[in-house]
């Protein structure tokens, strides 16, 4: 995984929201719900470090909770 700055992540997320607002405003809630898990990982330095190691597989990913 390529390390990205917080500013880069924010720009990517804002671009996703802008596109979703144009395409399907209802999808914005789903996008935001999906980000919660990602941002929680990046907020924890140990989890972020684990995910940024090359070749490291954390196993299956559970389905996100319903919105």
Textual characterization of the structure:
There is one protein chain. With 67 residues, this protein is mainly alpha-helical. The chain has a domain at 8-51. The chain has 3 helices and no strands. Helix 1 (6-23) runs antiparallel to helix 2 (27-43). The radius of gyration is 14 Å and the shape is globular. The mean pLDDT is 80.
Quick take:
By secondary structure, the chain is mostly helical. The chain has helices at 6-23, 27-43, 45-51.
Into which percent range does the helicity of residues fall?
Answer: 55-70%
Let me know the largest β-sheet.
none
Shape: globular
Topology pattern, helix = H, strand = E: HHH
Overall average pLDDT? 80
Low-confidence stretches: none
Structural class: mainly alpha
Number of helices: 3
* Beta-strand percentage range: under 5%
Beta strand count: 0
Cα end-to-end separation = 27 Å
Rg of Cα set: 14 Å
């Amino acid at each position: 995984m390529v390390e990205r700055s917080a500013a880069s992540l924010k720009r990517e997320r804002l671009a996703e929201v802008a596109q979703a607002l144009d395409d399907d405003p209802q999808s914005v809630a789903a996008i935001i719900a999906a980000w919660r898990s990602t941002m929680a990982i990046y907020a924890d330095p140990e989890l972020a470090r684990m995910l940024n190691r090359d070749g490291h597989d954390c196993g299956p990913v559970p389905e996100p909770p319903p919105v």
